Amino acid sequence: MPEPLYAITPSRSARSFGGVRVRVVRAGWFRPDAGGFFGVVPKPLWSRFTEVDERGRLLCRLNLLLVEAGGKRILVETGTGVRMSQKDREIKGVEGGDPAEALRAVGIDPDSIDFVAVSHLHYDHAGGMVDADGRPNFPRARYVVQRDEAEAAHSDELRLQGIMEVEQLDLVRAAGQLAEVQGEVELVDGVRVLPTGGHTRGSQAVLLGAVDSRQAGSRAIFWGDLIPTRWQIPVRWTSAYDDYPIQAVEMRNELVSRVAAEGWWCYFTHDPGSLPIQIEATERGFRVKEGS
Q: Which of 61, 93, 102, 129 ranks highest by number of CB atoms within 10 Å?
């Protein structure tokens, strides 16, 4: 492997946004199909940024964020977890993926987590909410999910059948640890969840830093699967996995325009590269800012 299976941003390199301290936890790898990942984007365009294996799969990270603010610890995302079948793990190229094991491997006690913000309920984001025995991986934490996402998971929409982590959601609920929120909500001072839709009905991003700060570089965003890697910064590059692609394009354009104008830093859920990065606007659209 080009990097260790589990890793964390060194303490000396942690980023701080108005008192909000952020480190990236690398919780493993997975290999999504490139055709689905890039949707209708032609291969000659996306292949300028990345390569595929002999089965047409990309090498992507399972990135979690460890956020410390107001005396609390917030974990963003839970990876794939350990409840997948071995066949599914092989098909999807999953290596690692257990968030509790990843935290312990880098010296963080899972019991120290106060909040778990889950961007949406697909397997590679919500698959690690509980352990192999069905117990919450983070016994002291409140799991934060948008109410629209929880309702979608329990709906009878044919497209959603079997692709949302309904059982894990219900196990967390039964343990009394589920916090369904509606709309933009502050978890602690400087850490907010923001509903975006687009990828799924109740997808949410995480905003880091003071809401009223206009100082360049003083805020950051974790995109979830609205923009899973820096490869998808072109706002029209939707995925075949986006349930609401028109909404995704509109929300991407709105947020990326603001991010570029105000100099926010960006964290991506599946990007294998160094994080965070910044985005800039050019005559030809948005791109990674040089030197970020």
A: 129
